[in-house]
Structure to design on (512 residues):
């Protein structure tokens, strides 16, 4: 028996939350099969199992926070019973068939023994004659008789074929057992009369429950009966808000299927519970906890200074349109963030002090030789800042490819811990939310971060002297926050002005 202990997912993390089990007790697994999905303070990680065998126990439930090194799954890695080859199966069938008469034979542990007609000894290649007492395996006719009709009727009556059948949205197959709760007594064993009903809402009124594991755990903790709720999510999925609302009005969990009365039936659309009007408590864990700790540590350890600069980016917007028509960028999602990222990398060549960190213990400033550009991404799991390693050395096409991949992986929630570590400078974009600008907080360990605001059409003065005029232009506001222990006002101002110059006239980038 082997126990798989929660490994360190990376970067010295001490705990992780069990999000989804991919296996159940009794499943067969091979080495490197994905068995569980965990959430750390930095990312969502799929864990492969290092053993092959049969799952005997899941030692942690979905939603549990487990410390690194704690056992999470038990696997029986004993050797499985060897399978018979086709030749062995034919030989066994011949000995057990009519031609064998009353000769006893056994098929056990891959060995067929006993005397065959004519006095010969039936021996498989690689094995000697069997010396132990021969046994006879029961034939099909020896199998137990099906249970009586009355017992079958009792089981069949437990199920109803009139209720709706639940399916996944992406495939027409019934929901798997971990997505619905078993209803009624178990099905009859092999050889009994078939039950024609599929898993559906029984006559008792307790149908399948559409709810994610964290929501089920919340309902259990709050004492809410999910069977009594109608979900407000897509396709009737029960959400956390539904459970919180039910908890407020006192929908208690049922101890038994007391749905024998009409009152136990699922509420109709008119009976749906109203949203809660009281406070809701959300556990601070995972990415949210890591973000909170990091922002507090950064805000109260590094003296922040923020500078603002509005700039005309019309030339950059025109360049972006030309890039979209080029064959090299076909199929890529190009946004102003790409050009800002490139401008930041170029400007850091002129003011490399912004690409550094402050070592308080050694009382040293570490100027990094490579730009690992972090891109703040809002994901369903919270704010993540994965970074592009060596972004300063990438061409515009390579940088576009890296940005697209980074954003795609982050939105899918598959960002790995290694991708969020080792950053040297960060870029965040609040303009996608229609916000003009903000005062960003430094990513811990870094001394600079640029915030890109919304790009809007605004009146702007162009030309000089007698040619001076007001025109509608594409304008944005850039904000730079830096650590004043490392970066002086002059250096920060020069860096921000360089980024604005490149965005106002991309040809200026050739000078860096």
């Amino acid at each position: 028996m082997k126990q798989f202990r929660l490994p360190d997912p990376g970067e010295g993390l001490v705990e992780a939350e069990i999000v989804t089990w991919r296996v159940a007790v009794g499943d067969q697994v091979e080495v490197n099969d994905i068995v569980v999905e965990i959430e750390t303070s930095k990312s969502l990680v799929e864990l492969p199992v290092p053993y092959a065998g049969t799952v005997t126990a899941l030692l942690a439930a979905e939603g549990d926070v487990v410390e690194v090194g704690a056992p999470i799954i038990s696997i029986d890695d004993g050797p499985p019973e060897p399978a018979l080859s086709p030749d062995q199966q034919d030989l066994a069938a011949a000995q057990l068939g009519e031609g064998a008469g009353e000769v006893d034979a056994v098929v056990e542990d891959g060995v067929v023994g006993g005397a065959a007609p004519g006095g010969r000894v039936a021996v498989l290649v690689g094995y000697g004659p069997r010396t132990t007492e021969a046994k006879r395996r029961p034939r099909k006719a020896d199998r137990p008789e099906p249970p009586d009709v009355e017992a079958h009727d009792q089981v069949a009556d437990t199920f109803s074929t009139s209720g709706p059948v639940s399916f996944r949205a992406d495939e027409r197959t019934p929901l798997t057992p971990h997505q619905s709760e078993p209803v009624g007594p178990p099905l009859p064993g092999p050889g009994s009369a078939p039950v024609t009903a599929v898993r559906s809402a029984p006559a008792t009124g307790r149908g399948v429950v559409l709810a994610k594991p964290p929501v089920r755990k919340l309902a259990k903790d709050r004492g809410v009966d999910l069977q009594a709720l109608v979900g407000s999510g897509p396709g009737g999925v029960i959400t956390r808000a539904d459970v919180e609302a039910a908890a407020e009005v006192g929908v208690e969990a049922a101890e038994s299927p007391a749905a024998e009365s009409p009152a136990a039936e699922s509420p109709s659309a008119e009976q749906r519970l109203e949203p809660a009007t009281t406070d809701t408590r959300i556990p601070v864990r995972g990415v949210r906890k890591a973000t909170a700790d990091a922002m507090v540590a950064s805000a109260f350890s590094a003296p922040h200074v923020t500078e603002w600069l509005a700039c005309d980016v019309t030339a950059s917007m025109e360049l972006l349109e030309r890039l979209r028509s080029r064959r090299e960028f076909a199929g890529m999602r190009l946004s102003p963030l790409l050009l800002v990222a490139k401008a930041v990398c170029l400007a850091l060549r002129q003011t490399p002090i912004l690409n550094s960190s402050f070592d308080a213990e050694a009382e040293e400033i570490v100027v990094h030789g490579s730009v690992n550009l972090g891109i703040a991404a809002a994901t369903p799991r919270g704010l993540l800042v994965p970074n592009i390693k060596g972004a300063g050395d990438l061409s515009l096409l390579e940088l576009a490819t890296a940005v697209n991949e980074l954003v795609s992986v982050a939105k899918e929630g598959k960002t790995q811990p290694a991708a969020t570590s080792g950053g040297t400078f960060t870029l965040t974009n609040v303009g996608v939310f229609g916000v003009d600008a903000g005062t960003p907080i430094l990513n811990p360990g870094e001394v600079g971060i640029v915030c890109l605001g919304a790009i809007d059409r605004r009146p702007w003065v162009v030309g000089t002297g007698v040619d001076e005029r007001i025109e509608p232009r594409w304008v944005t506001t850039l904000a730079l926050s830096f650590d004043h222990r490392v970066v002086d006002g002059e250096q920060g101002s020069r860096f921000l002005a360089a980024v604005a110059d490149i965005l106002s006239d991309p040809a200026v980038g050739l000078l860096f």
